[in-house]
């Protein structure tokens, strides 16, 4: 399987940025010698942006089926270390990527996106939560990501910077679980990424806490060394890094790397 052509990526970029006709020319992509499934392990906060990118790769390469597994970056890294058959790993932080790269389990990692935190609350913000201090108020049920998860590490930094100490009702293994608890009413508030708020309209609302812009999560991506589909895996990485991929990520609220 060869990489996506630069011409194909350019057409995708133009289409996504509104500079091309609504019906883009059909670009001939190189065909795979056989159907193949590409396994992408991605931080939970990358859903649904990576679903959209997976669809773009499949459209350009009809023989490819992209399967994305979403979870906390630390969980995914542990699975890859244990030999899980991943082809691509996209982490929400460098801390969980670096040991894999240092151990020769991935190729070189490249930063492709950034993200910041928001306070997730129920629609309408019924408890009037306006700042980090409110998360520690008596009677407010707050959930956070676990410390080893990127959103948990970022939350700890944000709270420490603000001098706020709180005991969360639970510590979740990925940011999606925090969103779910707030959306279901199991929790009153939680710290999630800005992109999670954007991805869940009507389920949660976001409050921007002071100091959020000083705690930016940086996302790296790399091909897993033992990938059985290394060229196709690199094609997905190339798409993520391309103008087309960056336009998709920006549309979902991610910052530039």
Automatic annotation (TrEMBL):
Keywords (A to Z) from UniProt: Metal-binding, Molybdenum, Signal
Molecular function, one GO term: molybdate ion binding
Entry superkingdom: Bacteria
List of residues binding molybdate: 45, 73, 175, 193
Gene source species: Cryobacterium flavum
PANTHER family xrefs: MOLYBDATE-BINDING PERIPLASMIC PROTEIN, SULFATE-BINDING PROTEIN
Originating gene: modA
Protein name (database record): Molybdate ABC transporter substrate-binding protein
Family: Belongs to the bacterial solute-binding protein ModA family.
One Pfam match: SBP_bac_11
Coiled coil regions in record: none
GO biological process, one term: molybdate ion transport
Chain segments annotated as transmembrane: none
């Amino acid at each position: 399987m060869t990489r996506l052509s630069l011409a194909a990526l350019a057409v995708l970029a133009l289409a996504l940025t509104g500079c091309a006709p609504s019906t883009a020319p059909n670009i001939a992509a190189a065909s795979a010698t056989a159907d193949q499934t590409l396994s992408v392990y991605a931080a939970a906060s990358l859903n649904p942006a990576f679903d959209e990118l997976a669809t773009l790769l499949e459209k350009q390469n009809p023989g490819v089926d992209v399967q994305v597994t979403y979870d906390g970056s630390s969980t995914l890294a542990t699975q890859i270390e244990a030999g899980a058959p991943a082809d691509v790993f996209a982490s929400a932080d460098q801390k969980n990527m670096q040991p894999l790269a240092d151990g020769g389990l991935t190729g070189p990692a490249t930063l492709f996106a950034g993200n910041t935190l928001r306070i997730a609350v129920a629609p309408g913000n019924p408890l009037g939560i306006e700042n980090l201090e409110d998360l520690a108020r008596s009677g407010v049920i707050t959930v956070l990501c676990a410390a080893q998860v990127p959103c948990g590490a970022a939350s700890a930094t944000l709270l420490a910077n603000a001098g706020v100490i709180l005991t969360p009702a639970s510590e979740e293994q990925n940011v999606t679980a925090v969103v779910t608890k707030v959306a279901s009413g199991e929790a009153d508030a939680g710290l999630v990424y800005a992109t999670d708020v954007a991805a869940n309209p009507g389920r949660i609302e976001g409050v921007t806490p002071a100091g959020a812009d000083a705690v930016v999560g940086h996302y790296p991506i790399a091909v897993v060394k033992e990938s059985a589909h290394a060229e196709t895996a690199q094609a997905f990485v190339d798409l993520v890094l391309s103008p087309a991929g960056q336009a998709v990520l920006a549309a979902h609220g991610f910052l530039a790397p």
